Fold this protein.
Amino acid sequence: MSGKPINIEQIKLYKEARDNGKTQKTAAAIAGISERSGRRIEKGEFQPINNKKRNWRTHPDSFAEVWGEEVVPLLKENPRLTANTLFKHLQKEHPGRFSDNKLRTFQRRVSQWKDQYKL
C-alpha cells in the first residue's frame, strides 16, 4: 500500500464500505489503502491524483521560428538524421540561441514529428 497513488475508484470503495457500516480499518482494507488515508478521506484532506493531460504550453516554444524553415526540410531530406545532430547544427547556425538544456525538448519534438510521418 505504501507509496502507491490512490485513485478515485479506491476512494469510492472506501466511502461505500463506510456507508455500509464498516470500520475505518475494514473499509481501508477493502479499498486497498492505508487506514491513515481513510482518515484523510473522511476529513476531506485527501486529493486524488488528477490524471488529466495539460493542453497548454508552460513555456514559449524555443524552436517555433526555426522548426518549419530549417528543421523540417532537413528531416524530409534525410529522415535518418538524429535529434542530436540537428540540435548541434542549430547551435552552430544560431550561436547562443539554443542552450544545451533545450536538447531533451528538441529530441521529443523530433521524435513526435518522425512518429507522425512514420519515419
